[in-house]
Amino acid sequence: MSSNSYSYRIGDLYWKQAGPNEWILGKHLALDEATESITFAAVNEATGAVVPNSESILDLKATSLLPANPLFTTSADMTALRYLHEAALVKNLYDRWIADDRKPYSSMSNVLIAVNPLRYLPKVEKAPYVRQSLDKSPPHPYHVAENSYRQLRSVKQNQSIIISGESGSGKTETSKIILDFLTDRSSLNEKQTLNTSSIDDDEQHRALEHALGDRLMETIPILESFGNAKTHRNHNSSRFGKYMRLQFTPAENSETKYHALHLTGASIDTYLLETSRVVVPPTGERNFHIFYELLRSGDDALLRDLKLVPNPYNALSDGEKDADAWINQYQYLKKSGCTSNNFVDDASNFKRLLAALKCVNIDATELFQVVSGLLHLGNVKFSEEDTSEGMTAAVHENDKDGAITVAAEMMGLDPDDLMEAILMKKISRMANDTVLEKRTGRPGLQREASVYYAKKDLRQASFSRDTIAKIIYEQVFGSLMRQCAAALEYNAEKKDELPYIGVLDIFGFEDFEPNNRNSLEQLLINYANESLQSLFNQCILKAEQELYQTEHIWSPQNANLLFPFGEFDTPTTTTPVFDQQPHQLVSYDDNKECLSLIAAKNDGMFSVLDTVGKLAGPTDRKLIERFHTLFKKHPCFVAPHPKDMVHTFCIRHFAGVVRYRIDSFIDKNSNIISTQFEDLIKSSTLSILSSAFPEQSNELTVSRRRGGAAANKNSGSVALSFSTQMKGLLTELESTRCNFIRCIKPNAAMDVTIFNRASVLEQLRCSGTIQACQVLQVGLPTRVNFEEIVDIYTALLGNDFMFKFPLSGRLFTQALCSVLEFPADAYRLGDTRIFFKTGKIHLLDTLLNITPIMEPEELKKRLIHYLVKRRWICAVTKVAVSRRMQIMCEECQHKRRAVVLQCWYRQILARRELAKLRKQHRIAKVWCKFTKNLRVQSAFEGVTEDKLLLLHALLRQRSVASHSKWLLTWLGPLQRAMYVQKLGKAACIAYLAKRAFVSLLAKVQERRASIKIQAQIRRMLAKKHVEVLRKKVRAQKLWQRIRIRVKATIWFFAMYRRAHVLNLERENARLKEENESVAAKLHDSNNALAESEALAKSLEAQIMLLQQQLQEANRANNYQNMSTSPNATKAFSFVETNSTSSSDWMHGNAPETSSEDGFSTSFNPPSLLVRESSLKLRRYDSDLSSQLLREVEQQQELTKKIRNLVLNINCIRPQSQVP
Question: Is 47 annotated as a binding-site member?
């Protein structure tokens, strides 16, 4: 049987985890020791009753339960809860938030947890927080502000209040509450403590503070209008971080020793303004409030002057003249598809903005002109044109006199300069100095200064337009901050001397996955939260140490107790070495590895991002590859899925693993302002733009244009600049006493009736509150006041018995722990409360149990026995200590007497030696002075000029040293002579000056007359020269027109010749196609001829066969004739001879005949002769059609002959068949 099963008591309430962020409250109904399982039933939190049919069996080996605090009880201080864990924290926050008297504030150590009430609560009185102890004050931002004020006044240490939380959690409203209290704090001091003589001065201070406080509060509408916007999570989200310092001047009344702090100045620092929202607001979100407030202001005259309504280049129809239609006219506002905000009244906010600008003394006219110019600048459209440089961008024809002209007019810029900056890239090359050659030493080549212009394509032009808009908005925002700071009278010269309270309103941890993508902005925000989390961990441990120091728990009687905190002044380590188990030591997630991964000086992600951005052709692909190569073995760099490694990287933050998308990292990190854009903005006639960039020295400007080292190396990187700002902020915060306010958003829908526990728990984890609770649990988290213990046991033991113990309750609690046999290392006694270690909660249950484990009489008996024993031990200890003190006192008296005698004798000797030395020193001093004067007089003896120089040097000094005054006495006669000489020289000089002036006047008059004559002559010559130049210009223009016409004519004839060549090529191609068709026909004719020749051969073969058959028929007839007549033999021989010749003809062996010239000739049959004749005819026939016609006729003749032969054969065959 596991020992854990016995720690769950039947009938108690426990929390069971039902999901990553969900807990279910239930009751332990039964225990099965055999199977180590319990019966668990859900409980209705509203009534405390068990939910029917909700019983379930839980295996204790696989399930762990957390004990629950009693129902229907809440605690303003989280550390006062009996059980401190995630479920208990969320339950306590929920009970306080959902109550009828809605209590959104709770505390934990020096951390205030503020759950956004989502509605305006009744205003809390400030006086109770000022006049009573803070221990009796409920949690509230006033509590944090008052604590900071008191610490600033008493400890004289600068204070800081860090407010963080996700968007919509109420950070801005909380900071307003803090500032409202601090601006009125000194006026809330008790009047009876003031001296009547200082009432008038105090009233004067109050009036000045009230005016300064009003100006400080009036800066908030300005910040909200220009720095806040509507997002998916919040209708009034701050898109920047701000740190406000409230500077106080201490005033002391010497009679009453009353110290007061008067508010005398304030300053505002801003961090990471989201300027990309100006040009590309996210889908479903709005741009900054100022644009919508201006268009919905209802001031027709102002909108007409700013050329916003009506739009001069994009007029609306009569049915569309409303605020939404006006807003949709501007591209920067309608891109996101969201133009309205149901939770914000833009018209009333615009009135508040005007009043705030007037209070802070800021010129609203120029400010609104710039805002209007940005809206018109976003409407500039581009088109592509084909030029010698390729496809380049140009302003659309419809916009040449429209949006860009109005935008330039509103921002005080020249339209041509603005168009040139958008469409042309200026490439400047500075002139270099003369370089000496190494070998000869003679001057080398010297490069002259030059400027080149390159046209931009469509994408580059759009990017330049948006970049100019972002730069202008950022500079305007910075100018507003500087003017607000000037109105707040911050004393920068005494910033290290005067105390202050800082209020930091910083963005909370952000993770937009999986709905949206995390980009560079989220990485910077999470880096800031990592830095503040490190500070938070340090301060939480320090606060616990301060509590232990205040309660004096390092008393000698508890020296044997080991617990994981050292002395207050000793450095705290993350894992101190003690004789405890490792799981009992204080350990928290140290995020130094994560901070090193992101912002290490040389090998951090920010440094790599800046390095890749400076390479030639930087791309996000190169950057992500460099990340995966350098940080793949880092413990905080998590490798994503292989298919996502091309565009994704993951970082393990203190709040969890976050996925970042690498898209646009290089572009967003680039913060280099082009000199072309800078010069353009400086040329504005509006002071708010022309004074935006500070003046730089010539060397710095030249170095910046050349890319030299004089320029700031981090000026072009947003990440490195933000890292530097955060490190400076952390250094300042570490030097102050930090107070934390964690703002919690109850639900994403901003519904007053919904408290999403899962979302709240996730925010508590991300803010580090849960981790802080775990740190407190490992220390001495469970604590109870002595007064509560005394009240419980007074009802049990009676008042008479309790009178035997002091009223403090500490002695009674110590006696009770001894009687109940608590282990000495399980608790510690402080001055006002008892602390228990983690896991010793059962001791507290035993201590606070109304029905103790023993009878009241037995308990009284043991308590009295403890008192008697304690008194006896105290008496014995006092006697022993008294004896030892007496001995030590005697020894000390002897030592003191000996020391007194030695000191008295040494004093006598020292006095004698001192008197002797003083006398010698006086004599030496007088002698040195006398000899020095003699040496000076002898050195100047006979040298009058040197005396005069010395006298002049003495007279030029404002005050002569005492040891040099004798020189004036010595040089007195010389001084008087010099004075008389000076008067004479002055008279001579005056006379000579008068004569010189008269002569000079005459010369001037003559010169003026000559100059007038020369001017007339030059004017006449200039007129003639101008006329000549005009004629030249007209001639040049005429010649240019003629050249253009000639070029046009040449171009026309060139194009005409080109067209003529193309036509000839097409005709040539057509003729080629016709020749190919004729050749194909000829080929077909040849094929037909070949077929006819084959047919002729076949016919000849048939003829030969028919001739053979004819010969056989003739032979048969001859045989019959021979048998019937005597001439048969001769006939037979004739027939045989004929048959032989015919057979020879059939086999190609024709009989030869000899010609007259002696050559033998062969006999050809008639068919062969016909064929030869036909070939001869074809040889001389040139016409193809006639040739074919002849061959057809020949074939027809051959056919006729064959038919005749066949008929002859048929005629002969019947004759041969006659008997």
Answer: no
